[in-house]
Design brief:
alpha+beta, 282 residues, 47% helix
């Protein structure tokens, strides 16, 4: 009969701190993913879901503390559990990396949530105003000149887009770009008399959490060309962490590029000479 042999290291107990650090890290990861999906697919109101997400971040932070304490205990008494500690730390870093990046933006960017290319007369939320009446939502009215001053200091490049396309063509190009981005269009009105103003309202989503951010666009004739003003505002929270300014900048660049590459309009055919007395003389 073969004798069983147990290595000395197998007799050492597993650090309970290491075990709990891994448990908390896994639970924090599940909670963070679940709360993100709840927000992204509108299964739960934004604020309760975000509270759950911040709770997951707190659990990840607690897991890091337990992992460090477990590492110190293993160093002192030689207990097992280093693999559990390393796994917990890896999970915690993955959970906290992107929120830490956003936290850096929160400290360096102004706390504003409503960005526009025309702070004096910004495009208005009309259809979208009805979606901004839920509990905790930001108002549909523009944030005002104080926000405009902060915007000017942080995002000086946000300006009205001017292109050499007639207003109807500019409206079509802009709407096509919005559809390519898969924003949810809730209102689209082509240029109409007397001002020949085009108006588009759509809902965009943030990259990770999928938080709703509302967009209003106004297209007006400007001589032979058009001027396009864009407004993008977060529906929730006082700071957008730069997402609205980035959205406007990318859309403005795309509109300008599309206008430059747009085919020249076909010349109108010359009118045919009318058949009249000249033909009769023949």
């Amino acid at each position: 009969m073969a004798r069983r042999f147990n290595a000395p290291y197998q007799m050492e107990p597993v650090s309970r701190l290491a075990v709990w650090a891994r448990y908390l890290a896994v639970f924090a990861a599940i909670t963070a993913v679940a709360s993100t999906l709840l927000v992204r697919f509108d299964f739960l109101e934004v604020r309760p879901a975000m509270a759950t997400f911040f709770g997951a971040l707190a659990l990840a932070g607690l897991s890091i503390l337990l992992a460090l304490a477990g590492f110190a205990a293993i160093w002192q008494n030689g207990s097992r559990g280093m693999a559990r500690i390393l796994l917990a730390l890896l999970i915690d870093v993955l959970i906290l990396a992107y929120p830490s990046y956003l936290g850096w933006h929160y400290r360096t960017l102004p706390a504003i949530h409503d960005i526009t290319t025309d702070p004096i007369d910004p495009p208005k939320f009309e259809t979208l105003a009805r979606l901004r009446t839920s509990d905790g939502a930001n108002p549909a009215v523009y944030a005002g000149l104080y926000s405009a001053e902060l915007q000017r200091g942080a995002y000086p490049g946000i300006e009205t887009v001017q292109i050499d396309l007639p207003v109807q063509r500019a409206y079509e190009v802009t709407l096509n770009l919005i559809n390519k981005r898969k924003w949810r269009v809730v209102d689209a009105r082509p240029p109409q008399l007397p001002r020949r103003e085009g108006h588009i309202e759509a809902v965009a989503r943030t990259a990770v959490m999928g938080l709703p951010e509302d967009v209003a666009i106004r297209i007006l004739p400007d001589g032979d060309g058009s001027r396009i003003d864009i407004r993008s505002a977060s529906r929730f929270f006082d700071s957008d962490l730069g997402s609205n300014a980035a959205r406007i900048a990318k859309l403005s660049e795309a509109i300008t590029s599309a206008a430059e590459n747009a085919p020249a309009p076909k010349p109108e055919p010359e009118p045919k000479p009318a058949k009249g007395k000249a033909g009769a003389k023949k």
